[in-house]
Amino acid sequence: MENKLKEFRKKFHWSQEELANKLEVSRQSIISIEKGKYTPSLLLAFKIASTFDVKIEDVFIPNNEGRI
Amino acid sequence: MENKLKEFRKKFHWSQEELANKLEVSRQSIISIEKGKYTPSLLLAFKIASTFDVKIEDVFIPNNEGRI
DNA sequence: TCTGTATGTAAAGTAGACTTTACGTAAAGC
DNA sequence: GCTTTACGTAAAGTCTACTTTACATACAGA
């Protein structure tokens, strides 16, 4: 699962910590998602999309290789 | 997190087992999601949406009360 | 040089998504 | 009555999303 979290965050000029606060998650979660260490839950994905005022599909791109 | 999984499944005239096979998950997962026992992972949500040829937002509706 | 801001790694713990197995029930058809 | 199909519950196990804490690095500015 690829994502454009970092691009969107930069676009809004937010630090990882600011974004974490807005999303009510830890900064570690932001780092891990940006670095592709894991894919967020559906709920967090919804929150991320609405924070950037876009659709989930605009931020997250599922891979062929994507496991369930 | 509300969802319209059952509605879409009925619309396509699929049993829970058929849908589970298409999505490559267990029938238990389908039951649990339909019954609202848990919300699927982002990857599974993507698969569900593409199976019904709609967007994630068409199937899943985040609640106000939604925890992360 | 010291301080603050931003980013990153590592490790251990908790909660929940998902699996497998097994069993229960109700309806439909022979 | 028996079998098949569809739906549901329960319980125990695995994996991973997410947390907290602590430490490291690099850069900017006074």
UniProtKB/TrEMBL annotation, chains A, B:
InterPro entries linked to this entry: Cro/C1-type_HTH (IPR001387), Lambda_DNA-bd_dom_sf (IPR010982)
GO MF annotation: an example: DNA binding
Boundaries of every HTH cro/C1-type domain copy: 5-59
UniProt KW Heme keyword: no
Domain of life: Bacteria
Keyword annotations: DNA-binding
PROSITE patterns: HTH_CROC1
Pfam families for this protein: HTH_3
Protein name according to UniProt: Putative transcriptional regulator
